[in-house]
Amino acid sequence: MKIIYTDALIVGGGLAGLRSAIAARDKGLDTIVISMVPVKRSHSAAAQGGMQASLGNTIKGEGDNEDIHFADTVKGSDWGCDQDVARMFVTTAPKAIRELAAWGVPWNRIGKGPREVIINGQKETIVEKDEAHGLINARDFGGTKKWRTCYTSDATGHTMLYAVANEALKRDVEIHDKKEAISIIHESGICSGVIARDLISGELIAYVARGTMIATGGYGRIYKQSTNAIICKGIGIAIALETGIVQLGNMEAVQFHPTPIVPSGILLTEGCRGDGGVLRDKDGYRFMPDYEPEKKELASRDVVSRRMIEHIRKGKGVKSPYGDHLWLDISILGREHIEKNLHDVQDISKTFNGIDPADEGEKGWMPVLPMQHYSMGGIRVKPTGETPTLKGLFCSGEAACWDLHGFNRLGGNSVSEAVVAGMIVGEYFAEYCANTHLNTNTFTIEKFLEAQREYLQEILSYDGGRNIFDIKDRMRTIMQEKVGVFRNGKDLNDAVNELEDLLKMVKEITVTDKSLCNNPELNEAYRVTKMLKLALCVAKGALDRTESRGAHFREDYTKRDDINWLKRTIATWVNPNDTMPTLSYEALDISKMEMPPAFRGYGKKGAIVLNPLSKKREEEIVKIKETLGSVDRFTMQEALMDYDLPKDYKRKNERVGVGYD
Amino acid sequence: MINKSTQVEENTEGYREIEITVFRYNSQNKNDTPEYQTYKLIETPGMTLYIALIKIWSTMDHHLSFDFVCRAGICGSCSMVVNGKPRLACKTRTNEFEDGKITLLPLPTFKHIKDLSVDTGNWMNAMSKKVESWIHTKEKTDIAAIEKPIEPEDAQAVFDLDRCIECGICLASCSTKIMREDFVGAVGLNRTARFAIDPHDERTDAEFYELIGDDNGVFGCMSLMGCEDHCPKELPLQTKIAYMRRKMVKA
Amino acid sequence: MSQKDNTVELLTGKNNFGKKSRIPAKLDFLQSVTGLFLALFITFHILFESSILFGKEAMYRLTKLFEGEPFIEGGEPLIITALAMVIFSMFIFHAFLAMRKFPASYKEYQRYRAHRELLNHQDTNLWFIQITTGFAMFFLGSIHLYMMMTSPEKIGPYASADRIFSDWMWPMYLLLLVSVVMHAWVGVYRLIIKWGWFDGKDPRKNRKRSKLIIKVLIAVYLFIGLVSLASYMKIGYDHQSDYGSRYVMEKIK
Hints:
The complex is a heterotrimer of chains A (661), B (251) and C (253).
Chain A: E1 2-11, H1 15-26, E2 31-35, E3 51-52, H2 66-76, H3 83-102, E4 113-119, E5 122-128, E6 149-150, H4 156-170, E7 174-177, E8 179-187, E9 190-198, E10 204-214, H5 235-241, E11 248-249, E12 254-257, H6 271-274, E13 278-280, H7 288-291, H8 301-316, E14 326-329, H9 335-341, H10 343-353, E15 366-368, E16 371-375, E17 378-380, E18 393-395, E19 400-401, H11 414-435, H12 442-461, H13 468-482, H14 489-505, H15 520-544, E20 560-561, E21 567-572, E22 582-587, E23 608-609, H16 612-628, H17 633-640
Parallel strand pairs in A: 1-2, 1-10, 2-7, 10-18, 17-19, 20-23
Antiparallel strand pairs in A: 3-6, 4-5, 8-9, 9-10, 11-17, 11-21, 12-16, 13-14, 14-15, 21-22
Helix pairs in contact in A: 1-4, 1-11, 2-3, 3-11, 5-15, 9-10, 13-14, 13-15, 14-15
Chain B: E1 3-7, E2 17-24, E3 35-42, H1 49-60, E4 79-82, E5 85-88, E6 101-105, E7 111-114, E8 117-119, H2 121-130, H3 152-162, H4 169-172, H5 175-179, H6 185-196, H7 205-212, H8 226-230, H9 237-250
Parallel strand pairs in B: 1-3, 2-6
Antiparallel strand pairs in B: 2-3, 4-5, 4-6, 7-8
Chain C: H1 3-12, H2 23-49, H3 56-66, H4 78-98, H5 106-119, H6 122-150, H7 157-165, H8 170-195, H9 203-238
């Protein structure tokens, strides 16, 4: 039996995992990161457009601060997020970006004086302040009041990931790639590591650690059309679910991005619209201002995606062999801007569609259609990142339902969450690892290892003649067609039933190659089983949630219902032989919110059933404000909703022109 | 070497049939012998090698191993040798091969795993450590304070070199690397150039010399330009290696 | 370097001060310097050689010029010996430096060859030309240079022609010509790339341009060289019966 011992074990080598590894190493802990792929290939690298942090350097971001970022995030989440976490996040984000700058991320910088930008389809000249010269620039993104999204052209995730990975290498974080965690070792409510499979030799290895963190990203690949990398299968989330103890939160909250390119599904960044690009229909007509007069193309992603489908349903889509689509037009930004700031977009469009988006007029329009993009749901954790039900198991990044994003994530908040969670959760995790001692034994470890060995043998012994690839395809199609942008009770019910059948059907497959090593078919067999469990959590969660909130939109329950549904869906898989998750709910407490639920300012008006507690809390807030009188915004905020941060992350952030105010 | 042929595909009218020949070998299995296997499939519009290989894998041969992650030319996982040229498979469209015949080999110089899959991660991590691919500075950053201003052009210049995706194509196109295992290659030299021009990095030329001042570093490069001519990110490798060479000769 | 210093480097890979040796930098630089020097030498050498195309007299006068006739009555062939010695040392030094880059074992050679055939990449193929011609010149160049050092007086319209034709040196000269022209110009192209000499605003375009110019120069020099060689052959053929007799200028006759 191969056992590898370490202090801090991190599963997943993307931004969140690697930043957490740095936090652990900085505490002097022996740290191992295991990853299915070389860490610099992680899906964080694919984030294009940018990272939100309220620096307020650019003139269009002037006056920005944590409060505005907080409000944008909460509204974006459709009040589904955990406001404590949102506060922790917005306070740390400026620090994260400055730390990254010092680590060499070549953030696009401001040049003083006038420059031309496209706003609302029109050329405008803005003048940058002298004192902002050389500071980090920002672009406009959906659902934000200020230009807040900092970027390195359209390869932001890539430059961030490389900087963080290199810093991890500098600190001698041990990286074990081509290893896949397939089960979590735990006993008496304490987690002590994972069983991982060496994807080259097929060997099973027990990684035993004082603390374990899952940072394996989202589960987008349960959908047929997704912008996600093909490794985004949610395996890390699934193995947590399979403990029977760990809870998943809001799995039905799945984001659809408005502008992946058709048919490949490769993402074209929100920066396209942020920089001034517009959406057009089959007549070349710019339709978004009709639906969203204020934010237009830059309403939040859930809203824009729905409006696009709505418009296509009106017969305004462009016909193609791959179904109807719409156009994204960035040619109006000019060739120079595109080649400098949207280089990868141009490259993708040219390579995969033969379209040069810098070509003027119709010729440069790129075909786009909303597709699965982000998983707001994931492993439910406390603000410290630890799971409330399994001690020593932490989770950060997209894999977690830390709950920063609620039911809709804002563009630019994902890589931002990944590094910020890496700092905050990483710090709590490191503290835990430093103060905890291993309390397991080889008997327990062997038991978990044996269980996996037997499970893999069991899969190889199935002999029902079915093909795992067919099951996977069917699952992905069901999710696409029945658990998509628009959802309804009938379809969701069908989806749940069919997915349950598929899960049962897994035992009827035949894996033709019986080898345990380097067998891609075997990998697929156990992965699809796990994906089906997640798909069921998504579909069942969506079926039972009879309201519309953020990205979860029910055609039969079109209103956001704060009276009955201001709560988080919690899914567990109680018994290994279950074929359906067990759902429960965790209520959100309005009386503790800094920002009680209200209208978001975009999306359909009058589609909310407000909770009377909202009003009550609002009055309370007014009263608190009156009592305090003229105090600074930090004192005020503390009085409304206090929150904790580790290290010195709660310090005030300096900004150009305003200092530490 | 044995040639096997597999044909599973209904004829779809109007589309041509293409032949993809793949190097098959399992380096983990001592008894395996290398062979080339040919698959015939119908070329659908806009087909890339990613789409073709996934199709082969899911419908014809579940045992075929290859590496894809982002399938959008961003992550650098799917480098392989396509009709002799190291390329990113996800960005290679099948219709550019007029005779419809495509031969795929794993990337040379890296440790072979199976079929088209090789181990790039460990090599790249070791390279990053060897050239100390991170900012070296004595300055302590206060992350709550306003960041150090950087000239926009300087940031842009660093970004242009930071676009490297460690796909390994420069190494697989390099005769020096093919002959000399320990050569850091264009990827390593470009990385040092990236830090050498970064205003955050305080390293002197003499310090860089300690990292790349030998025949495994910049003086190993014979300027054959395989890197420059195959880099999928079109990085300015030719000029940056020359830049480092000029610096190192004087260091 | 003392024995002690060498021992330190042997054991640590660094010198007494814990630093990497500067020798690799010097070797790399000197390889380029010697190469450039030899390339410049050969461009003029071939041009001077081709003076035969302007007649025996032109060639004779040029030869005498190099023997220092304006200052020394009748010329002094030892000047040629001295020049040849300088070139030969440079040549050996360059060969010594360039050898570092040759495949050092069968494994390296096999890997290089298989890779080159697979890649079929022009600049990589050009390097193959360079190592083959370089290798050939170890011998061809040495023969020629040694002869020039030992028999410097045997240069002249008839003397050279007899050597080439009647002494059966022409196959060697043919091979040497092709090798030296290719090696020199490809080498110059590589120097341009290696040190980034003419990068300009668009290094990619300028590299293409450099390559084109180099190709033209190779063609021109091969042409000049081959025509000159043919010319010596013709003279040597006609001069068979008077083998050994030296050229005397018309007016002196």
